[in-house]
Specification:
Layout (H helix, E strand, L loop, with lengths): L9 E3 L5 E3 L7 E7 L4 H17 L4 E7 L3 H10 L6 E3 L2 H9 L9 E5 L5 E6 L4 H8 L4
Parallel strand pairs: 3-4, 4-5
Antiparallel strand pairs: 1-2, 3-6, 6-7
Amino acid sequence: MVGQARPDFTLPDLKGRPRHIGEWDGQVVALNFWATWCPPCLKEIPRLITLQSRYGGRGLQIVGIALQKPGDVSAFVREHGMNYPVLAGEMPVVKVAESYGDSIGALPYTVVIDRHGRIAYTKQGPVTVQEIRKVIQPLL
């Protein structure tokens, strides 16, 4: 996947509005596939909040993609102060994750897309601030 153009997709946000990946073209985008019932995902979320706060002004956009119904995620997102857009769904999310290389359905799963729309990094399992920083800083 690394080096390939990012696949196209549209998924609903937590208010049901369709959001297209192209909205974030020209930015460094970190897609994070997760679920509220996934303990490693929950440990990772504060790290992603920190990264969005620290690097958002320099062109980083984290996008959470929950493998759940939007209604099952909304309260969680508010309670945890998630400062980045969250999209949600069930089978459509599985299909998007597969198109980004998550062939085994691992959660969390993170994909970093550079400013030119090319996949720069993928990781099954939780990321640390240090490892994702090494990926995104040269891209910003």
